[in-house]
Specification:
alpha+beta, 9 strands, globular, binds copper (II) ion, binds zinc ion
Length: 195
């Protein structure tokens, strides 16, 4: 009996631990101009090694557009309220996936390439970025889709205006509910006479 409850507890713990390691966040991207058709989503998945980011946009002008995480969690004032690039180390602008935190802002994701049909996808993995840590934590910050291409010039890549913006927020997924509700099944296990 005790052994069985112990087993349930162990399973609950593993279910919870798994969810804790695979935190998922999303930023819904909206055009900053009034009546802008620009839309999209950045999905951020935290693993033990870093954060995987997948960005999808629609109704966006074809070509390359700079895409960054900026320091403030606000899209007000045509995205200007998002402030500068998220730059926890006070370093120069670059491409973080290639240059690392020592030679690029932690939010320097480069460019998203948009096709003639207005859709574009960007996938990047940034080692040691987090959704829960003290440093390099991008939760609650803004993602910015720029008007122009990031040419990696200083100080911020000459990417022009901010045509799309969204704020990174945790997504509550079904696995999280399973992890939380598992311990509540224990009373019915207690009452089973055959065990
Ligand atoms: Cu930017
Ligand atoms: Zn930058």
């Amino acid at each position: 009996m005790k052994k069985f409850i112990g087993l349930v507890a162990v399973f609950s713990f593993f279910a919870f631990a798994q969810v804790a390691l695979a935190a998922k966040a999303s930023a819904l991207i909206k055009g900053t101009a009034e009546n802008s058709p620009i839309a999209g989503e950045a999905v951020l998945t935290e693993t033990a090694e870093g954060v995987e980011i997948e960005v999808n946009v629609v109704n966006t002008p074809p070509g390359k557009h700079g895409f960054h995480i900026h320091e403030n969690g606000s899209c007000d004032d045509m995205g200007k309220a998002a402030g500068g690039h998220y730059n926890p180390d006070g370093v120069a602008h670059g491409l973080v996936a290639k240059d690392g935190f020592a030679h690029a802002h932690a939010g320097d994701f480069g460019n998203i390439e948009v096709a003639e049909d207005g859709t574009g996808t960007l996938k990047v993995f940034i080692p040691n970025l987090t959704l829960s840590g003290e440093k390099y934590n991008v939760l609650g910050k803004a993602v910015i889709l720029h008007e122009k291409e990031d040419d990696f010039g200083q100080p911020t890549g000459n990417a022009g205006g901010r045509i799309g913006c969204g704020i990174v927020a945790i997504v509550n997924e079904a696995p999280q509910e399973t992890g939380v509700s598992a311990p509540m099944e224990m009373p019915s296990v207690d009452q089973a006479p055959s065990k």
